[in-house]
Amino acid sequence: MFKGKCIIFSAPSGSGKTTLVKYLLNQKELNLSFSISATTRQRRDGEVQGKDYFFKTKSDFKKLINNSEFLEHEEVYDDVFYGTLESEVIKQLETQNVIFDIDVIGGIRLKEYFKNNALSIFVKAPSVKELKKRLSSRNKDSNESIETRIQKAQKEIEKESKFDLSIINDDLDLAKKESLDAVQNFLSK
Ligand code: 5GP
Predict the structure, then answer these.
(1) Does 122 contact ligand 1 (Cβ within 6 A)?
(2) Which domain holds residue 175?
(3) Which domain CATH number covers 53?
(4) Which of 12, 56, 142, 182 is the most buried (most CB within 10 A)?
(5) Could you read off the pLDDT of 76-107 as tens digits, one per residue?
């Protein structure tokens, strides 16, 4: 059995889950630590190796797969891989609760793995139109990447019912409050 508990945040890209995860990480009384995934994607400006992600070459990522080092891994976008490293998470769970910012398929897999030791939360943007607006305005991705993300989002929205809870991120303050209440409640049980 693990000492800590798991909080899984999944959502279509652009729903604002990362903002909610960062907000919760700042609530020190929750004793949350961020699960740092491995990825083969390019590092964005401002991202730090070993803090935001473990940035890996494709060949190193394949080695990790072959050595069964992932709890789950996914080709989240065409030829771009992401995965949760088992050893990292198990180490974190010895002293802290762990929060995951992960795609929808990965979130479902982790919930299946951790079962009642995990709360899985699906974050929704109010509409696909709003999702497009958010992805364009954050200016981080090319038009092609935005289009890929929207297509993926439409498929992901169909999997909402596999999560313990859904939060609509329309009014950010409200979404923060709902997230905090749900996490506090789960951790206190
Ligand atoms: P980004 O490239 O914008 O940082 O992340 C793209 C997507 O990959 C997001 O939905 C993010 O939550 C997801 N992601 C990040 N880490 C992992 C992981 O370890 N496994 C899976 N399946 N998805 C991940």
Answers:
(1) no
(2) 6-187
(3) 3.40.50.300
(4) 12
(5) 888 999 999 999 999 999 999 999 999 999 99
Number of structural domains (the chain) is: 1
Using DSSP, state whether 86 is helix, strand or coil.
Answer: helix
Whether 1 is in a domain gets the answer no
Ligand 1 atom closest to the Cα of residue 74 is 22
76 Cα: distance to centroid of ligand 1 (angstroms): 7
DSSP 3-state assignment of 68? coil
pLDDT in tens, 30-59: 999 999 999 999 999 999 999 999 999 999
Residue partners of 72: CB distance under 8 A and separation at least 6: 83, 84, 102, 106, 109, 110, 113
156 touches ligand 1 (CB under 6 Å): no
Q: Are β-strands 165-168 and 37-39 bridged in parallel, bridged antiparallel, or unpaired?
A: unpaired
Residue of minimum CA distance from atom 22 in ligand 1 = 106
Question: In whole angstroms, what is the distance from residue 89 CA to residue 70 CA?
Answer: 10
The DSSP letter of residue 164 is S
Query: Which residues, in sequence order, are CB contacts of 55 under 8 Å at separation 6+?
Result: 38, 39, 40, 41, 42, 43, 47, 49
